[in-house]
Amino acid sequence: MCGRFALYSPPPKLSESLRLPLVERELRPRYNVAPSTFITAVRRVDDDAPLVMDDLWWGYRPHWAQGTAPQPINAKVESVATSRYFRAAFAHHRCLVPADGWFEWLPVNGRKQPHYLTRADGEPLWLAGIWAERADGKAGCAILTEPARGVAKEIHDRMPLALDAQSLEPWLDPHLTDRETLRQVVHHLEAGLMTHWPVSTRVNRPTQDDASLVEPISS
């Protein structure tokens, strides 16, 4: 799953990594991004609009859903294209969530030890997401997850769907709506690029937000 992540790369670095024309905005570093907050995402508001860094609520509930409907923060790649709740967004409202890494918790001797998972080369991650307009008129999103691969399997059985560089443009292409076509042109990041290390349990508290949260500790 993906329930907590960090984003501290500055917008120019994100633009360089994305390799697409992007309307930037100022961002403050965040080292403990939690659900039910606004998060940074790259999207087109409509098909002809430029790509922008936008604030999306991390909690997906389409405007047609009832007020008691769930607000998932994740959507499984296995069912996102066919689920009634997600399929329209998968076809028409895809986005990318930039992250420098994410946190997962590994059970160790009766306690849960947080680990930080990130690219070994320090480059940003681009997590596949979907968004929908909520009943309150704001946009909410969910991050796609897939079965864990590579070193991520040591920590959790699922992981966010991080895309490789060649997949970013087609993922954001509003004219690609067919599930099978997307499968052919969108690929996850090579698992061998990832690494992880244990971090402070301070990350358990969403109110904590500083650079030390992503620094390794002795497990």
UniProtKB/TrEMBL annotation:
Top-level taxon of the source organism: Bacteria
Pfam family, one: SRAP
Classification via InterPro entries: SRAP (IPR003738), SRAP-like (IPR036590)
Keywords recorded for this protein, A-Z: Covalent protein-DNA linkage, DNA damage, DNA-binding, Hydrolase, Lyase, Protease
Membrane spanning stretches: none
EC number(s) stated in the UniProt entry for this protein: 3.4.-.-
Keyword set includes Hydrolase: yes
Top EC class for this record: hydrolase
Keyword hit for Secreted: no
Gene3D superfamilies: SOS response associated peptidase-like (3.90.1680.10)
Family statement drawn from the similarity comment of this UniProt entry: Belongs to the SOS response-associated peptidase family.
Protein name as catalogued: Abasic site processing protein
Organism the protein comes from: Halomonas kalidii
